[in-house]
């Protein structure tokens, strides 16, 4: 994926993100108001989680705007594409905080669960569920193309499951008068959020630490480059991800004295693009007697 394609992967979903932001903000206020009025921990926790949806989608929008405004420049040689990854990591941190709060508060209520009126909780949860389904459907396509949009999508997905839990909790309270339904639902919401949050944070950190793209065999890439006609050695190979769908590589290729540097460069770039889908590769072609300095470097 080229830089322009990667930028448009998030950019073409910006309208849907704005709609999801508006829907989340309105129904977050509704759930918070009803939750505080009824002392429903499940509803308050779902509203707090919806707050992270609103903040997460807001950061996703900000990241896309930054990336589109500053994709080039002498002082920003890679633009601001990493803003998307930072937004995804911030979303994960918010989710960890909300999940931890929900678990802590829910456990504290098991000793003396308060009476929670079922009707207001069911109505508010139903509205929240409708809002989350709408946002989920709008962001589902973009989640496959951008880690930034995926961060917002995962938050909406987790909140959708939370809304279902709150709805069931409200029905249990309404029909059976079971006070433990509310704190149990709070625990289940927290346990649902944590593993998905960890995966999102792990993927974001994987990119920020400039690890090789997941599923890419770096040793195989180096071996294939070394086997190219005219190449005697491939070294100083680095492969990393700039942002979703934008893999970048750099390498030194040592060639024989009778090899054509331009031809070696052409076939090496073609190999990386066609076999490994790395469109942006910076390759240094060097004669055999100049490769010694690279081996003497410590990193």
Task: Walk me through the structure.
There is one protein chain. The chain is mostly helical and 299 residues long. It has two domains: 3-208, Cation efflux protein transmembrane domain (Alpha-lytic protease prodomain-like); 218-296, Cation efflux protein, cytoplasmic domain (Alpha-Beta Plaits, 2-Layer Sandwich), CATH 3.30.70. Helix content is 67%, strand content 10%. A three-stranded mixed sheet has the order 1-2-3. α4 runs antiparallel to α7. The longest helix is centred in the middle third of the chain and has 30 residues, at 147-176.
How is the topology of this model organized?
Elements: H1 3-11, H2 14-38, H3 41-69, H4 82-109, H5 118-139, H6 147-176, H7 181-208, H8 218-226, E1 231-243, E2 246-255, H9 261-276, E3 280-287, H10 292-296
Helix pairs in contact: 2-3, 2-5, 3-4, 3-6, 3-7, 4-6, 4-7, 5-6, 6-7
């Amino acid at each position: 994926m080229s830089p322009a394609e990667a930028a448009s992967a998030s950019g073409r979903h910006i309208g849907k993100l704005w709609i999801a932001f508006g829907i989340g903000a309105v129904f977050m206020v509704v759930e918070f108001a009803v939750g505080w009025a009824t002392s429903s921990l499940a509803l308050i926790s779902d509203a707090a989680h919806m707050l992270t949806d609103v903040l997460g989608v807001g950061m996703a929008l900000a990241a896309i705007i930054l990336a589109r405004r500053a994709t080039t420049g002498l002082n920003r040689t890679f633009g601001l594409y990493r803003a998307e990854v930072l937004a995804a990591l911030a979303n994960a941190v918010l989710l960890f905080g909300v999940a931890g709060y929900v678990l802590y508060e829910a456990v504290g209520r098991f000793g003396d669960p308060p009476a929670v009126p079922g009707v207001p909780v069911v109505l508010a949860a139903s509205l929240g569920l409708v809002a989350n389904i709408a946002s989920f459907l709008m962001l589902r396509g973009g989640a496959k193309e951008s880690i930034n949009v995926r961060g917002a999508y995962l938050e909406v997905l987790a909140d959708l499951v939370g809304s279902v839990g709150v709805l069931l909790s409200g029905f249990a309270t309404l029909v059976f008068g079971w006070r433990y339904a509310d704190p149990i639902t709070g625990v289940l919401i927290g346990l649902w959020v944590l593993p998905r949050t960890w995966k999102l944070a792990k993927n974001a950190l994987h990119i920020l630490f400039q690890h090789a793209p997941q599923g890419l065999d770096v040793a195989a890439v180096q071996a294939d480059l070394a086997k190219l006609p005219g190449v005697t050695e491939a070294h100083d190979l680095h492969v990393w991800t700039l942002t979703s769908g934008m893999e970048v590589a750099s390498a030194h290729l040592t060639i024989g004295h009778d090899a054509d540097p331009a031809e070696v460069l052409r076939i090496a770039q073609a190999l990386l693009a066609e076999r490994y889908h790395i469109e942006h590769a910076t390759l240094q072609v060097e004669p055999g007697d100049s490769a010694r300095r690279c081996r003497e470097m410590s990193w």
